[in-house]
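pinging the channel bc i need a second pair of eyes. not urgent but kinda urgent?? the chain im working w is below, pasted from the shared doc
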Amino acid sequence: MTFEQIINEIKKHASRKNVEGMARFGINPKNTLGVSMPVLRSLAKIIGKDQKLSKELWQAKIHEARILAALIGEPQLVGARQMESWVKDFDSWDVCDQVCLNLFGKTPFAWPKAIEWSQRRGEFVKRAGFVLMAVLAVHDKKAADKEFLKFFPYLKKEAIDNRNFVKKAVNWALRQIGKRSHYLSIRVIKLCEEIQKIDSPTSKWIAADALRELRVKSYKLAKK
């Protein structure tokens, strides 16, 4: 399919009602057509992996085209420069998450960018750093558990950021790292207990919510 054919196909599935529904879940309605993820995934299967088209779709500045760009991009061809360019364009949590999950998290730059971006000021750039931590915890099966300990200082430091899309990403990263193994579960629980002692409503929420899940999961992992 050509770029024009793909854009036309996306527009065929536009839904104003869906856009309104997405907005209620905090998705930025700007340049959004309301196309569902199943439609985009089906389209991605038809197109196949295509780095050139991926970059063209990103430049279209259409919400769904950018998600599709992540689905068809080729991780082995993605460089640090492209990652820096795209992350600056993030303006909605779902685009951020889909790009990190389907593309950025599969590149060799995912580990350093997770730390680097977690220290940036921008809400969605910072979120991307923590989303990458969560993605790596689930999908990087070859990584040694001890490698995830390097994320701990950044998770603790940023647990006071009360911006919605940051605090939820910190919480997500803690939960996913903690569920990776019994070894990490014990250590993340301890980290959450430290975070809970910080004099901040945000840090207390992040820690309490993560601990509810991790204490149950830790028990199950220990029983294996």
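so Residues 143-224 form a domain with the Leucine-rich Repeat Variant fold (CATH 1.25.10). and Residues 201-223 form the longest helix (23 residues). — does that match what u expected or am i reading it wrong
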